[in-house]
Amino acid sequence: MKKVFSFLFVFLCLGSAFAQGSIGAKGFVTDGGTFQNSVATISHSLGTPFNGIGGGISEGLLQTQTVGVRDTLLLLSDEVSDAGYVPGYDPQNDEPDGFTEEGYDKYVQHFVYSVTCQGDLDTTMIVSGHPTISLDVPEPAIEPNDGLVALALTHDGSAQANPYDYAVGSTTDLLWTATYGTQSKTCAPTVKVNYFPCPAVTGADGSAYTYPATRLAYYCWTARNARAESYADASAVDGVMTYPDADVATYGHLYTWPAATGYAGADASFTQGICPDGWHIPNATEMDFLLSAFESRQLMSTTDWLPTAGTDDYGFSVLPAGFYNSENEMYEDLRVRAYLWTTESVSTVYHACLFGADCGTFEDIVSPGTMGYSVRCVLNYW
Hints:
By secondary structure, this protein is mainly beta. The protein has helices at residues 77-83, 248-251, 257-261, 284-293, 296-299, and strands at 4-12, 33-36, 41-44, 48-59, 62-76, 88-90, 105-116, 121-124, 132-135, 141-143, 150-155, 158-159, 164-167, 171-173, 175-180, 183-187, 190-194, 213-216, 219-222, 240-241, 254-255, 279-280, 321-325, 330-334, 337-346, 349-356, 361-368, 378-379. The strands form 10 sheets. Strands 1, 4, 5, 6, 7 and 10 form a 6-stranded mixed β-sheet that branches. It is elongated and about 105 Å long.
């Protein structure tokens, strides 16, 4: 009569690391390793097991050692699906694989982490006036989410904050890296921030004139000179001038600084002046941006300038409307120069922007408020 007895013992992988490829504090390394105790040594080449389970059956003079390895795998979600696993503890492969080369029966059970990438982020700005937008890039989904898989976000090899202020008009390639032990998986999302569409300006001021609009970097501007004779509240503008023999529909009116800025509007952040509702007279920051970001010929119209027209690369179409010189009470510089008011004032002088085909540049100038200059408007933002 044969006597049969059995016993079960559990080996926890908590010891110090053996040589390369052997079990350590975290278990097997990803390129393979061994599980060893005083009775059995087995080889394994999957992921990082978190423990080993061994059972022995003694029958007469013969002894068979059955050893189980519980292996932790970090996989992308499609790899999990392709392998037929399920996230979490997957007992699918818990049957011994028969007599092994080490002389023992063994089997492998799996604990599977699934990493699901979230895809690209494509967004469009809905307001003007901001060079960046703060975006929070979705993390890869980890299942089970027990906090043991580490996530790191990088750009060009350097750590990337999340959320982060991404430049409007930019496309940024990012890299999420999920790490468990010596295993890692990556997701490579792209963040694209599109420029906002500039709205049409129709029936927009007290005189019900319409204006085309264009985008200059992250600002929306009107693309024609103002020709309103009343403010948005229908009150009359005092200080409107018209260059003799100039087509108002083409060149617009000329305005003194008080006339251009005389209506505060509903938004205290900006000076609406003769601009349509939702638009404002450019401030010093916005005009200085033009001076630094563009060349004058890129903004000047392709016609009417003497001696040399511009290229009008952005549809801003600055026309040489000249100005009214209040000091000698004369109109000057038609087809030669253009002057645009800003809201900036210092004592009794006021800032404007000068375009000139004869000098090939444009600059910030200061003038008495009684001079008559053209006006362009900027879309409000927050």
